[in-house]
Each structure stands twice: as C-alpha cells, then as structure tokens.
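Appendix B. Chain record.
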Amino acid sequence: MIPRRFRLLAVFLLSLLLMIFLSGCWDEHELHTLFIVTGVALDESDDPEKMDITVQIAKSQSKSSRSGDTEPQENYIILLKNKSGTMMEGLMEFNRDSSRTLMLNHNQVLLFGSSLAKQGIKDHIDLFMRDQDSRMEVLMIVVDGRGEEALAAKLSQDRISGMFISRVIRTMSSVSSYYQVRMLDFVSRLLEETTSPVVPIVTVTKKGKMEEIKITGMAVFKGDKMIDRLSNDETLGYIWAMGDVKHCNVVTSTEVGKAVFQIIKLDCKRDVKIRQDGGIGVKLSVNTTLSVGEISGFSETTSEELMPYLVKIAQEEIKRKIMNSFETARRLNADIYGFGTSVYRKYPKEWKSMKDSWDEIFSDIELNVQVKAHIPVTGQITQPLGIKEE
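Structure tokens predicted for this chain:
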C-alpha cells in the first residue's frame, strides 16, 4: 500500500503539471499581428451594387509620439478603404491585402453616410450582428455627408475621431440614454415593426486647418431607411417625452426677461387609451425638478411674483418643445416614441386589428401633455439684479 504522504505528493505534482501545460488562451493573438479597429464607415458607392468601406485603425503610440501634441494625425491612425458588395467581402479583402488581421472587438462606432442610410442599412449590419468578434453594443451614427469624412477628420481635441465620437455620445447619454443608440437598440426597434428607430446624426465642419464634429440632431428611420431628421431642438422634445432626463438646459425667453434652467431630473409617464371613435389618445405626464441657472430682465417683476412666473414659463417651454417634436414625427408618419408598442401592451386583443393600419392611426393620435415643474432654489441670490424689492 502506498503511504499517504506519497499520494499527496503525486497529486501536488500532477496539479502543477496541469497548471503549466493547460494554462493560457487557445485563441490568443500577438499584438503585432493585429490591426485594432476604432471606427467603421459605410458609404454609397458609384457602383450601385457595392458600397465604400472605410476602416479606422489606431496605431500603437511610441514614446516620442506621446511626448507632445504636435504629432500629425497620420501618426495616430491608419485608414483602409475598399469597395465591396458586402461587409464580409470587404473584411476578407482587407485581411488578404494586409500584413495584419483586423480586430473588430474594440470598434467604437459604426458610421453611415446619409446617402447610404436613405437607401437602407439592414443588409449592411448583418455581418456585425453575426460575427463573434463584433459587439452588439457598438454605437450607430449617421454622418451628414460621407462617413469616411468623419473617420478622416483632423480634430484638435482627439487624434482618433472614432474614439472622440464615441466619447461625445457616451457623455450625452448621461443627459438621456436615448442619445446612445447601440446596434442592439436599433435592431430591437426594427423588430417592433411599428416603432421608427432614431440615430444621432453628426456633421463635420472645417475650422481653419482642423475639423469639428458636432451632433446636429437625430436621423429618423422608417424601417431601415432614413427618411428625415430631427433638429437639436426637436431632439430635446423627443428625449423629454421619453423621460429619464438629467443635466439638461431649458432656455426660455419672454417679453419681460430671459431665464435658463437646468433639469435636475425629468420623468415622463405615458397613458394610452382607445377613443370612442376608435382612435388613440396619449397622455404624457411630465414631472421635473429644475434649478435656475441664469435670469436676466424681469425688472418690473416683484420677488413674490418671480418664482411662480419662472415655473410657468419653464412648463410652457417644455410642453412646446414636446409638441413641436411630436408634430414633426406625425408629419413624417414615424412613431419614434413607441406608442404602438404601448398600445399593444395595454390592449393586446385590439392591437391585432390596429397593427396593419398603425400609420394611419398614429397620424390621428391626440396628444395631451401635462407638465409639472418644481424649482426648489434659485441659486446663491434670490432675485436677479435690478428686480423690484417690495
């Protein structure tokens, strides 16, 4: 019989051997064999059967390139371009003609030129949904013009424009999660069938020798095709109607003065009802807490009259923007709010007869917006300079 101490020693040695030979990743790749993708842009091609594909790759920075901010953009990124019928063909061509393999795991943004977006993008995102190296959380952006222009933009704030756009969108998501549209969110709205997806739209503009990239609204889709856009003001109305908003400004201007409020918190509850005539009525109950960021004028207003008046004009401005956004959506016949889904959840039986004619029903919706605002404080001073003090 083998002594117990020898058996314990044998188990220890076997465990040590297993740790040595079975550790590590079976599919690991050396960094020098990879191109790390930070942005992908898809644009309309002069060949109607193909599309222009641009891939932005972040270079590994050397010590000298990190020592100052005077390095040209070419020292930070590589742009690969080709023309292919599908994304898979494009990736295969990139890998075939390159000394390294494209790595999509760290891709930050998926950009669509506005012309291609108007033609439809469902087929173009199929690979990103199926490929195991791609992420469903990648941000979708429409570029006013060509997507490749955004990837090639020379920015003063960030040398890698794909990373810059991603950071801007994620910063805006702290205001409202509806600014951040992932591929997963876009596809989910497509599957709802009656809900129209919206995607942030950015514009590239010249500023001296550099460029700027700014969010200029939301691209509105009908199915997978872009049909129009919301301005930044209309986008505010849209996100306020969706609720869960923080750190957003409300700018008001009247004949007696101007006031700028900051939304501390804004929630919006919706209630859908079937009208007696068979149409749909939607009630939006907005409840918001505001702080006064800046006020000017109101010289003829007493301090006792000021606070109720500020609450009143803030409520009116929030309601006005929500209604303006809704009128634009109704004109486009695009249910960007998901009202159809709300009707389905509350009236599943009645929805069966409404679904096929939802476009006509949506254009006839009666929207009732009620805003309740609360301003707990006015700031470090209790009244604007020059206001009457009784």
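Further analysis of this model is presented in Appendix C.
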